[in-house]
Batch of 4 targets.
Target 1
Amino acid sequence: MAGVKDEFDKLSEQLGDMVEEMLSRNFFRYAKPDTWRPNVNVYETAAGFLVCVDLAGIEREQIDVQVKGRWLLIRGTRPKPLPDTGTAELCVHVMEIDSGRFARKLQMPAVIDTERVTADYRNGYLWITLPRDKPAAGARTRSEREGNR
């Protein structure tokens, strides 16, 4: 019985390693093959949402932010980071920093007030403030429609 458990543990570990490798290769990312996706953190407040986008090494002018309804689209271009070696020969051992075109599309849990969206780029992070859209006059919230259950 111990042999079966050992084999199962080994198989489970191998499967875990395969899944981790697939995720690290970005198999599950929505992006065109020639684009990369920046990492994001999304926070919710009473007023709306704050989105922090990791975009080190990019000039503010290279970033485009669009909001439509519940959708946030962030895109732009990051140059390839290369050392200033002049004409010296360069050998690369590890190159993990994404460069070139990037795009990230996020769906927010609520409609956004596009007139009040702001963005601030500092220390390599793009901070986007997405205020919730105010409901139309006479509109009821979900909890009002469902009653007090």
Target 2
Amino acid sequence: MKPTSNRVFLICAALVALAGLDARAGELMNLSTRGSVEGRGSVGTGENVLIGGIIITGSGTKHILLEGLGASLSKAGVSSAATLQDPLLGLYNRNGDLLQSNDDWRYGPELDIEASGLAPSDDYEPVIIADVAPGNYTAIVSGYAHSRGIAVVEVFDLDGASSARLAELSTRGSVQLGDGALIGGFII
């Protein structure tokens, strides 16, 4: 998805080189960005979505889990009224083709999601589990039925034994203050 207006956009990228590291020892396990898109700090629809660019390097496939969190952010101190109550999540390849989508995580591979230990606390939050080859991917978080609010896009590495590596998550969102700030995070 390309911006088509004169809004100010921020590209927040976390890049980690992990050559020669023992599997799981010092390896990148998670990348996430809490963002808000478009006026009043919210993720919406159309151009007003949270976009995460994901890069997988190496060879073979990488088993990943993607989340689009919204309502559960209230447990982390974000005002419940400000969160995206019903996010949608889509995973796209470099050509823009939709590979998978999810609305509510319990309508996905529920047992696999629960087994990962990463199931969201809110049933309306989407999760995608995918095996992806090295390359560039896009995760898009939007609001169901034109809903708006603060959301998080996350990607987790579920397979440290793979020679493929989770290398980057870059995020497109508008620059704002307060609750509308774009915040990146990672777990090693």
Target 3
Amino acid sequence: MARSDACADGTREDGSLDRARELNRAFIAICWYKRNLLQRTNHASPAARQPGQYSNVKIAVISDTHDHIPLLRRGAADAVEQGADAILHCGDIVAPSTLEKLIAYDVPVHAIHGNNQGDAYGFTRLVSRRDHRVTYYGQDADIELGGRRIFVVHFPHYARAMAATGDYDLVCCGHTHAEEAYQQDNLHGGSTLVLNPGTLGGVAASATYALVDLHSLRYEFREIGNSA
């Protein structure tokens, strides 16, 4: 009788399905660990801080690169030339190999995923390396740079809701492929800047990103163009 390598529960003796499940659980666990670690960190509310506490730090906010590597490289190079100290990616990177291209610019990179998600295991392997400064948070990120508390998420409605809490100085999002910035009224009686940099991948729009001065919270939308 021919030997069957199928088990009663539908898995195979070679454990391929079990390994896939373990990798998926590991990725989810890493994302939740990072999120919970950030949530446990004590942050002063924006209203409680004094203006002198903010550093002269510039950040490049990018989103929706959709594996367009030539435009990603041009945008990142322009941002570093303009003095960006860090890059924030608001999602829809797609492939881990695309995110990996940002390592060459030698600035910290903070990235999340969007609704177009590629190889989750590949992202996990990339961020586990120690030879770069790329941090991949999962669906959203709560970070502090230059004394400013920043929330990063892909979807604009989620960004508006987080800005309304008043817990952040800046909330960044993407998804629409259209640059936008506005002040959202918040629960502390003030307002919070919500910023969408557009699509650096040039998807159905000109390729753009935002350069933000964290000391003043002034921003500039920079157009890269769509030619490769």
Target 4
Amino acid sequence: MIERIKNVPARPDRALVLHRLGYRRGKTELDAAQMHGLDGAFRRCAGMIKADAAFLRLGIVSRGGGLVSLEGGAELPGKDIVKLLGGSGGVYLMGATVPGYDSLTKGLFGRDPEFAVVLDAYTSEYADAALDFVCALVSQRLRPFGEKLTRRFSPGYGDMPLDAQKGLFEALELSRLGVSVLESGLLRPEKSVIAVAGVIGRNAAGEGSRA
């Protein structure tokens, strides 16, 4: 069963947002006024956006030959994901989106380019933070069963093609969160992400909707 969370109670890691903006500790020099200005921009960002998420547990039907096939027909192509899920009895699919981001930023780079760059970085990390929240929630549920998640993996990384997102998009019914997918596999709104994580542990082979 697909579970959905509206207004995910997550916030991006400040250090990761700064890193995305090009800040490197020990190399980038920012005075107190500049850091104060950035913190003010981060607070402004937090007041403008929210994130929604969906997640689903599926069993693994088969794996090998560079392909993992899941219950329901979704497929995960690539040797990297086959290796990651080698000890998994099932997977969690998850997706997160920042609704309204595209309309929110329309023309912003022309009107206020400095803030637009900050908002772009902040929102990217916010979508990732929403997936972190989902992983933490699922991990808490799995712990009593002696199970845990692998690291998460997204289409477009390693040797998994970006267009693999299309099948995962359908499995998660992300259209119900206002997300759409292009033929290329790109998601809209822009700040939308899909990932998969394996379930490992003593009971992982017993698939279903337990957690």
